[in-house]
Design goal:
38% of the residues lie in helices and 17% in strands. With 250 residues, the protein is an alpha/beta fold. It has one domain (15-245): Acetylglutamate kinase-like (Carbamate kinase, 3-Layer(aba) Sandwich), CATH 3.40.1160.10. Helix 2 (40-54) links the parallel strand 1 and strand 2 (59-64). Helix 3 packs antiparallel against helix 4 and helix 6 (154-164) runs parallel beside helix 8. It is globular and about 50 Å long.
């Protein structure tokens, strides 16, 4: 348990601060220390942390990126039509979604993959009502293929699915433990924001998420929490309302 200040009475009583969350995972988060692909130990650890949160009674939806796979073919895609390249990236996210589902199955965590692209042999199509029902049944719902449209990032897909699922918060899992006043790698004196407004994040171009995703969340009053998926126990601490990462608030 973190010894950081806790601002919520819910946290003090031991109850989660949120009932339903959308977790945005980058494809790169699955690589671990590898240069590309899926690191089995890394995906197992991430799934274990998701399982711990589900055990608290929190309903969890996941949007997954595809950078870990698409990075491997990116040199060959140079000069390719942008829409074609984006569809390749979407297919990579479906591969990651299936890998996540398989890792969850191995520990007894029930999960369903829904794809924004029609690939019924391997994943059911995205249907909002079914996805909400799965969440209410305690299953993890993993959304693959982004929005199903080229020119949109998986950040935007996370904002969109978060709103459609009526989640309490979007959690963006990154390599850095929050949003800083500057790049902490090159500026050791950079300070972490505990909270920041959407408008400030946009004006200062803090790269919390892409501008479209940020604007969508701001307009729907949907908060975002940015935290490090590589920091053990961070996901649970965010869900419990503790001082972990950075919250972007309306």
């Amino acid at each position: 348990m973190s010894d950081a200040p806790q601002s919520s009475s819910q946290t003090t009583s031991g109850n989660p601060a949120y009932k339903r969350i959308l977790l945005k995972l980058s494809g790169e988060a699955l690589m671990g220390d590898d240069s590309y692909g899926i690191n089995r130990n890394t995906i197992s650890r991430i799934v274990s942390e998701i399982n711990e949160v589900v055990g608290l009674g929190v309903q969890v939806a996941v949007v997954i990126g595809g950078g870990n796979i698409f990075r491997g073919v990116a040199p060959a895609a140079e000069g390719m039509d942008r829409a074609t390249a984006d569809y390749m990236g979407m297919l990579a996210t479906v591969m990651n979604a299936l890998a996540l589902q398989d890792a969850m199955k191995h520990i007894g965590l029930k999960a369903r993959v829904q794809s924004a692209l029609n690939i019924e042999q391997v994943a059911e199509p995205y249907i909002r009502g079914k996805a909400i029902r799965y969440l209410e049944e305690g299953r993890v719902v993993i959304f693959g293929a982004g929005t199903g449209n080229p020119f949109f990032t998986t950040d935007t897909a996370a904002a969109l699915r978060g709103m459609e699922m009526n989640v309490d918060i979007v959690l963006k899992a990154t390599k850095v433990d929050g949003v800083y006043t500057d790049d902490p790698k090159t500026h050791p004196d950079a300070m972490r924001y505990k909270t920041i407004s959407f408008d400030e994040a946009i004006i200062k171009n803090l790269k919390v998420m892409d501008a479209t995703a940020l604007t969508l969340c701001r307009d729907q009053n949907l908060p975002i929490s940015v935290f490090s998926i590589f920091k053990q126990g961070a996901l649970k601490r965010v869900v419990m309302g503790e001082d972990e990462g950075t919250k972007v608030l309306p």
